[in-house]
Amino acid sequence: MTHDGPTSTEHSEARDLAELAWTDRHRPRFHFLSPGGWLNDPNGLTHWNGTYHLFYQYNPDAAVHANIHWGHATSTDLVHWSDEPIALTPGDGPDADGCWSGILVNHNGTPTIVYSGSRDGRQLPCLATGDPELRTWRKDPANPVIPEPPSDLPLVAFRDHCVWSENGLWHQLIGAGIRGVGGAALLYTSRDLRSWQYHGPLHTGDAGAHHPVWTGTMWECVDLFPLADRHVLVLSAWDNGTTHHPVYYTGRYADTRFTADPPALLDYGKRYFYAPQSMRDDIGRRIMFGWIQEGRSKAAAVQAGWSGVMSLPRQVSLDTTGHLRLAPVAEVASLRGARASTPAHQLTAGDTIWLENVHGDQLDIEARITIGEGASVELAIRSTPDGAERTVLVLDRANQELRLDRSASSRQPDLDTTPLRGHLPMDTDGTVSLRILVDHSVVEVFANGRALTARVYPTRADALGVTIAATGGSARLHHLDAWTMTDIWTAPRALRP
Length: 497
Ligand code: DQQ
Known about the structure:
Layout: H1 8-22, E1 37-48, E2 51-59, E3 69-75, E4 82-88, E5 98-107, E6 110-119, E7 122-130, E8 137-139, E9 155-166, E10 169-178, E11 182-190, E12 196-204, E13 218-227, E14 230-239, E15 242-254, E16 257-260, E17 264-265, E18 274-280, E19 286-292, H2 298-304, E20 306-307, E21 309-310, E22 314-318, E23 324-328, E24 336-342, E25 345-347, E26 352-359, E27 362-371, E28 376-383, E29 391-396, E30 401-405, E31 420-423, E32 431-439, E33 442-447, E34 450-455, E35 465-471, E36 475-485
Parallel strand pairs: 1-20
Antiparallel strand pairs: 1-2, 2-3, 3-4, 5-6, 6-7, 7-8, 9-10, 10-11, 11-12, 13-14, 14-15, 15-16, 15-17, 18-19, 19-21, 19-22, 22-23, 24-36, 25-36, 26-35, 27-32, 27-36, 28-29, 28-35, 29-30, 30-31, 32-33, 33-34
Bound molecules: 2,5-dideoxy-2,5-imino-D-mannitol.
2,5-dideoxy-2,5-imino-D-mannitol is lined by residues 40-41, 57, 68, 100-101, 116, 159-160, 220-221, 236, 243, 274-275.
């Protein structure tokens, strides 16, 4: 579809917002984010004729979740992105209040977006078709293509889409919540993406069950995909307006039936990796992006001129226990600049080592550590020389746990400092392979395949140090390599490219 170009006043305001965002020292420099304003979910992920397309929930006018458009960017390497024209803008029909999340499929050669049109507090499935370059989009005159949610269920909400082709039929899951039951993925089929037949829930959660992980009262952004010999269902657990955390089930899917193992938390940072969506790329990788939310107040985001970051692209695989393994795609390493290596080292309890040559707020750190019985390793990042501000990652062997302690990350009040934690599977000898990506306020940790994402906002400009210590026992640092990461942005970008 097309939209009228902005007026000259809008242009100058827009420029101000992007320039304001550009000057914020908490703004990441090697992650994808919107030019300014608001970003939330990744949408419409696809690898189309050799180009990666990343669409996203975008408000180009303010750093608040309102008036949601579909922003669009393309890449050939998953790390450097070019802004494309905004793909979808709220209209005067069923998406008058926003073009909410959805996906993109190839319908007989026509790129087709299935998204949730939002109006008057309800969301309904809508379509838009694109030109061969995926640059201009035309909304379907028949929108909404499903005019009502199923009438036989007391639904809390009904939105977001996962669409795939199976045996010549389009299949669609729509996220929902069934009052008194829990979240649900509702199944539909269609021959033409326009006329849909409802088949009931493919899978349902239990809102009363809190172990091993709570699945919320409604499921946002359901995503079902094959992985090795299994299928994975990813969802984002939502409850009464609160975005909680991403969850996955692994299981078997056949003949529109899904039998799953118990659910698990996808990222221990919870809402800091929310609404993930995945795609299979041309070389067969399952690649996932998630929305990294802010950890500072809404007012602080508005003042900064921007809110929300896309995670680095993650490759998803299955481990031998049926759990997901997440790791940044190999291309992320192409952003590595100067390297500093710390040689093998025996850490004794109580010692803290300053990694003198590892320094910065744009880092990729890789380490292999064997943690002795009863010991924990504490790796601090964004540390001031006096340690007054520091963010501490704890690898706890006795409890087989990965933790992030943000209690001293910043002296600024009004920040989220909730402790984050999750199970850290270890070999019997206590070895952990660790990767930490620090990009100003963003921290993405991968430890033995488990992910923990978070935000930190140190106040001090010298919060750049890295230390490592062992407590309660000893540990062996086999190696630690750190690279300074290169910026992917060189100047403020146009809010409406
Ligand atoms: N964000 C979208 C919804 C989705 C939610 C609206 C998840 O479609 O349910 O911006 O963050």
